[in-house]
Amino acid sequence: MPEDLKAFIDTVAKESHLRVEADLGDGFVRLRTEEAERRQAKHDIRSSEDAVIELLRNSRDAGARTIFVALSRTGTERRIVIVDDGCGVPPALHEAVFEARVTSKLDTVHTDLWGVHGRGMALFSIRLNAEEARIAASGVGKGCAIVVRTDVANLPEKTDQSSMPLLSYDDERNLIVRGPRNLNRTIVEFALAEQDACSVYVGSPVEVAAAIYAFGLATTTSAARAFANDADDLPAVKRLCTAADPAEFASLAAGIGLEMSERSARRIMDGEVNPAPLLLETVRIDSPAPSGASSRTAHATKNVLRDARGLKLSPEDAEAFKERLSAAWAELADAYYLDSGVEPCVVVRGDAVHVTFPARKLR
């Protein structure tokens, strides 16, 4: 090919034809080996912490505004489940995204705090090092639920996984994160850096299921929940709120990678499980921002500074509040053929009051 013609094509096509081996559809491509190598990441997957940060970056780049992270460990088995409300992955590509050099970021590869992202190797490397890595649920416009199961004997992690990081200020008035570089710190650093882009919730599978249930109730109309023919038609973060009973709840939860018993599902639906919290509301700062701190520093801490006293309701006020809520619920329940006799669960956590009504259909 003449050099002037090649230069012209490069200009018009932005060199895409030279970077792509195959167009997989829906915005996904398989990069040529040379292009993938050009985008080499800062490091490969060498730990559970590496796997988590890559999954979080994928959710962020998929446009997720809300990300739920469920962490659990039994013996040497580590289980990571991430559910988000991003743009999702087409069902036909659920397996392909774990293949080498497959990416949806042909023209949006970029470098962030954790290195280069968008080379189409992160999910491939995760599956290579994990016992299991799969998409549990996803579709175009329906977010994504991804499950990763590892053996810490093969893919290690920090020994101390119980410690939460602390935030403090250095001599130059910059906010810094201290503590073991475990999963908690990894996720906190991401949540802090990306707080303007997305909110991150972290907990056990049952706590995360409770948070997703509450999220669905808050963001889905009662009519949409009552008349949903197939939960799979809804985004992954809204499916649990359509459950009619604990058995269906447990089944739907398993469908997004959150395995649990019917007993746990019942406790969630009855409001007996505290939902996984917004992560940045759980992080403690050693001291207030120093005088003269830059606006950038103050902006970075806006979601983690709060009244340490929290909010408390007296038993009398809580009971009176429940009575008024029950009266309002009765009218709505009658209109949708639901049990009007259920008792609302009122939970005060941090600076928020969470109210849950078990939506039991009349038989």
List keywords for this structure.
363 residues, alpha+beta, three-stranded antiparallel sheet, 12 helices, 33% helix
Task: Describe how the helices and strands are arranged.
Elements: H1 3-13, H2 16-19, E1 20-25, E2 28-31, H3 33-38, H4 48-61, E3 66-74, E4 77-84, E5 102-103, E6 110-112, E7 115-117, H5 122-129, E8 132-138, E9 144-151, E10 166-169, E11 175-178, H6 183-193, E12 199-203, H7 205-219, H8 222-226, H9 246-255, H10 262-269, E13 284-285, H11 295-300, H12 315-335, E14 345-349, E15 352-356
Parallel strand pairs: 3-12, 10-13
Antiparallel strand pairs: 1-2, 2-5, 3-4, 4-9, 6-7, 8-9, 10-11, 14-15
Summarize the structure.
This protein is α+β, with helices and mostly antiparallel strands.
Shape: globular
Helices and strands, in order, run as HHEEHHEEEEEHEEEEHEHHHHEHHEE
Structural class: alpha+beta
Strand order of the largest sheet: 8-9-4-3-12
Percent in helix: 25-40%
How many strands, which pairing sense, and closed or not: the largest β-sheet?
5 strands, mixed
